[in-house]
């Protein structure tokens, strides 16, 4: 379910967050599901446990998961990751607008952005 690519320039915590968001959006993870422990995921992905902990903290701040002391990390039942349909598409369009605006301010064309994004596919 969760994967990281150490050759990808994206930081590991961001890759983990991206994978978890996709798993929730695709229905692989449901609200209330427990996530692997930091140690379990660290062993599975072969990355430092601190990177997993950072990803979980970032996901908690984003409202995707809930950290329950002594119990684990659980998918929340509400928040941006639980969006579906038109609202989900609208959020994606907003994110695209921010990306394209920032890229334009750095001097990149739409075609350059598309080529760069396409090169990041695995």
Q: How would you sum up this structure, described in words?
A:
This protein is mainly alpha-helical and 122 residues long. The protein folds into two domains: 12-77, Orthogonal Bundle (Arc Repressor Mutant, subunit A); 85-119, no CATH class. It is built from five helices and two strands; from the N terminus they run αααββαα. It has helices spanning 12-25, 38-45, 49-61, 85-105, 110-119, and strands at residues 65-68, 72-75. Strands 1-2 form a two-stranded antiparallel sheet. Strand 1 and strand 2 (72-75) form a beta hairpin. It starts with 11 loop residues before the first helix and ends with a helix. The mean pLDDT is 87.
Number of domains: 2
Q: Quick check: average pLDDT? A: 87
Treating each run of at least 4 consecutive H or I residues as one helix, how many helices? 5
Global outline: globular
**How are the strands ordered across the major sheet?**
1-2
User: H/E order of the elements?
Assistant: HHHEEHH
CATH topology of the largest domain: Arc Repressor Mutant, subunit A
Strand content: 5-15%
CATH architecture of the largest domain: Orthogonal Bundle
What is the CATH first-level class name of the largest domain? Mainly Alpha
Helicity range of the residues?
40-55%
Tell me how many strands there are: 2
Q: Using only CA atoms, what is the Rg?
A: 16 Å
* C-alpha end-to-end distance: 15 Å
Low-pLDDT segments: none
Major pleated sheet: 2 strands, antiparallel
CATH H level of the largest domain: which superfamily? Winged helix-like DNA-binding domain superfamily/Winged helix DNA-binding domain
């Amino acid at each position: 379910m969760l994967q990281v690519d150490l050759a990808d320039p994206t930081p590991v915590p961001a890759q983990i967050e991206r994978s978890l968001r996709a798993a929730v959006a695709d229905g692989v993870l449901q609200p209330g599901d427990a996530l692997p422990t930091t140690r379990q995921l660290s062993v599975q992905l072969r990355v430092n446990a601190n990177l997993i902990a950072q990803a979980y903290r970032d996901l908690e701040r984003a409202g995707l998961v809930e950290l329950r002391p002594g119990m684990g990390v659980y998918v929340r039942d509400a928040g941006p990751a639980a969006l579906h349909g038109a609202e989900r598409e609208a959020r994606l369009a907003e994110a695209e607008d921010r990306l394209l605006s920032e890229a334009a301010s750095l001097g990149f064309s739409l075609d350059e952005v598309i080529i760069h994004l396409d090169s990041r596919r695995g």
